[in-house]
Amino acid sequence: MIFKVVILTLLAVVIISLGAALVAMARGDRSDRMLKSLIWRIGLSVAIFILLLIGQATGLIAPHGLG
């Protein structure tokens, strides 16, 4: 259960990072704030993917069929 909460929390942080990059882009900010936000998003997305692979390999999460 805690594993799923961690994944959902990381997904929320990814969305917040995207929002921060959008705000920086909309303001026309010339600093590297947008770049840092997007780098965080990419890093967190990779971390989520790796955590999902680890979770499946260890049995913390299990795939299921649609039917």
Overview of the molecule:
The chain has a domain of 45 residues. Helix 1 packs antiparallel against helix 2. The protein starts with a helix and ends in a 9-residue tail after the last helix. It has 67 residues and is mainly α. It is elongated and about 45 Å long. The mean pLDDT is 89. It contains 2 helices and no strands.
Architecture blueprint of SSEs:
Elements: H1 2-27, H2 33-58
Helix pairs in contact: 1-2
- What is the 3D form? elongated
What's the Cα radius of gyration?
15 Å
Number of helices: 2
Report on the biggest sheet. Answer: none
Q: What order do the helices and strands follow? A: HH
Mean pLDDT score: 89
List keywords for this structure.
mainly alpha, 67 residues
Would you kindly provide a brief summary of this structure?
With 67 residues, the chain is an all-alpha fold. The chain contains two helices and no strands. The longest helix is centred in the N-terminal third of the chain and has 26 residues, at 2-27.
